[in-house]
Specification:
Oligomer: single chain
Mean pLDDT: 89
Low-confidence stretches: none
CATH topology of the largest domain: DNA Polymerase III, Chain A, domain 2
Largest sheet: 7 strands, antiparallel
Radius of gyration: 20 Å
CATH architecture of the largest domain: Roll
Strand content: 15-25%
Order of helices and strands: HHHHEEEEHEEHEEE
Number of strands: 9
CATH class of the largest domain: Alpha Beta
Strand order of the largest sheet: 1-2-3-9-8-7-4
Length: about 230
């Protein structure tokens, strides 16, 4: 059993706690201190959750390389199926770069990946009109990739019944994005810097590196009354 599945199993048990037990559990989980000396079930399970989170983080830190890029690109192509635009389920070549897009994120790669290519005669959108660095964009700080990946996995494990995808808030003056989409962009463009427009909640985030790879990621809508602050991972 993977650490993610173990975490999900533990969190399913936590749902049966009464109010007092859940408060106890939440308190211990939220603290960095070692509570292993405590013997009650909520505290013990909280310590298990903390350890599993740490283990997931270590596992993600070890992952790197082209295999991860290929998996990220395939996730984009799979997501494109929902657009009902068949062309987006393939990788296209424009201006000598491999393009992968699902309508929410797009990347252009100098060194292509082993992906299904666009059939002859099938039209593809002009990516050059989408991947554009705005004149008013400023460089933004991206999260640590391993920590972001661990955040996504722990969120999904702890919110199994919540269909909403984990979100990443870039900060009060910036945008909110789908956390998994952001991770995929960072995997595909590991050396890229990111740029965004300050004070514009709905906007495109632009990525580029020194090798000529680039891409763009759409932000998500800010919910009414949503308290804004940068997501901690």
């Amino acid at each position: 059993m993977t650490n993610e599945k173990m975490l999900a199993s533990v969190m399913s048990i936590v749902t049966y706690f009464d109010t007092e037990e859940r408060e106890r559990f939440d308190f211990v989980v939220s603290k960095r201190e070692d509570f292993s000396a405590l013997t009650d079930v909520p505290a013990k399970l909280a310590e298990v959750v903390k350890q599993l989170r740490e283990d997931i983080g270590k596992e993600e830190a070890k992952k790197s390389g082209r295999a991860s890029q290929l998996s990220a690109a395939k996730r984009i192509l799979k997501s494109a199926i929902k657009t009902n635009k068949e062309a987006l389920t393939y990788a296209a070549t424009q201006s000598d770069k491999q393009c992968v897009c699902d309508g929410y994120r797009v990347v252009r790669l100098v060194n292509p990946l082993a992906l299904p290519t666009l059939p002859d005669g099938m039209e593809y959108m002009d990516i050059s009109k989408v991947v554009v660095k705005g004149y008013d964009m400023e460089e933004i700080e991206l999260p640590n990739m391993a920590k972001l990946s661990a955040y996504i996995k722990t969120y999904k494990a702890e919110h199994k019944n919540n269909k909403e995808a984990p979100r990443f808030d870039l900060g009060e003056d910036w945008q909110i994005v789908n956390a998994q989409y952001l991770l995929d962009m960072m995997i595909l463009l590991p050396n890229a810097k990111a740029y965004a427009t300050k004070g514009k909640s709905v906007s495109m985030i632009y990525f580029e590196d020194e090798e000529g790879n680039d891409g763009a990621l759409c932000s998500v809508r800010v919910k009414d009354g949503e308290v804004r602050q940068r997501t901690e991972v």
